[in-house]
Amino acid sequence: MPIITCDCTGNGTCCSVCKLNVVGYVTGWLGVRKSSIRIVEVGPRDGLQNEPTNIPTNIKIELIDKLSETGLKTIETTSFVSPKWVPQMADNRNVFTNITKRKGVSYPVLVPNLKGLEAAMEVGVTEVAVFLSASEGFSKKNINCTVDESIAKTKSVISKALENNLKVRGYISCVVGCPYDGAVRPTAVSKVADALLEFGCYEISLGDTIGVGTKNTIDAMLLHVLRLVSSDKLAIHCHDTYGQALTNICTALDLGLTVVDSSVAGLGGCPYAKGATGNVATEDLVYMLHGMGAETGVDLKTLIQAGKFISDFLQRPSASKVNNAMYSRL
Ligand SMILES: CC(C)(COP(=O)([O-])OP(=O)([O-])OC[C@H]1O[C@@H](n2cnc3c(N)ncnc32)[C@H](O)[C@@H]1OP(=O)([O-])[O-])[C@@H](O)C(=O)NCCC(=O)NCCSC(=O)C[C@@](C)(O)CC(=O)[O-]
């Protein structure tokens, strides 16, 4: 699909694309106040993958089972990646096989290549997530190939997954900043998004992997990508390293996105994005969304209990302000 370009200020006057953006902006803003927001819980994967000490399989299973009781509809469970690269995810088969899969809940897993997809299919996975980067530096460090090589490799993974009736989500990392390359141009994001959509991803999660995004940079990136991809095919994935995640999520909601990734207890960080702290805490996200009058289907108290469970196991306070404020009063 061609990228529609224009050089106006996006004020909705010069062309249909901008009018669309302004309409999207207004309806997005109004929409959130009554629409439902789908939360993609990534805590068991993005949250735990970077933990330095091995987390026993039974603890991972118990966390996922607790999250399944909260009303979350998507719980990312594990990764089928090289154990040499991400040892914490080495028990992927055991975790996926032994969780209690709740009706109506999806349990996607990350796969970087055909080997990972085949291993995931062996244990009955029905949804996978491929993951690429908008920046060369992170692509090389994270999946050991260039952006173009990753696009080429991913095409065969997605087509094999679709042939086997699996749903495929696509992640794009470093959508505004890269720990190795610095600032990332929106055009680099839309290039990858265009490819993933063309290959058949049902949704693209735009990851501020190191949490450097601000309202302006997230706005600029989204306005560019929205020229190419409709908001209903996009998700926002914000790490909270600089405390900007909730603001950046609101920016995305105001532009019409309705899918947000988050991590229970604010766990997380990528082993190949040094210094990146956790995702926005799911508890804080749910509290904010409910305060806006948006529906999430999530029971905050049950979620807080799940966050407390993993924080207690890790023997450190939760990164969720809502958890810390509310737990003692449950
Ligand atoms: C992609 C590779 C494998 C390339 O790694 P490579 O070394 O280029 O691949 P290779 O084909 O040479 O294989 C190396 C070894 O890994 C094995 N291998 C190969 N593939 C698999 C597999 N799927 N499952 C299990 N084993 C695998 C393969 O068999 C071989 O084993 P050996 O012969 O040395 O014994 C590696 O770079 C890798 O696993 N990277 C994963 C990195 C990762 O998981 N990062 C975190 C997820 S991304 C993220 O967190 C960001 C995100 C999504 O949250 C969004 C955001 O915040 O931005």
Automatic annotation (TrEMBL):
| Keyword terms, alphabetized | Lyase, Metal-binding
Q: What is its EC number?
A: 4.1.3.4
Question: Enzyme group, top EC level?
Answer: lyase
Gene3D superfamilies listed in its UniProt record: Aldolase class I
Taxonomic superkingdom: Eukaryota
InterPro entries cross-referenced by the UniProt entry: Aldolase_TIM (IPR013785), HMG_CoA_lyase_AS (IPR000138), HMGL (IPR043594), PYR_CT (IPR000891)
Listed GO biological process terms: ketone body biosynthetic process; L-leucine catabolic process
Similarity comment: Belongs to the HMG-CoA lyase family.
The molecule here is called hydroxymethylglutaryl-CoA lyase
Lineage from the top down? Eukaryota, Metazoa, Ecdysozoa, Arthropoda, Hexapoda
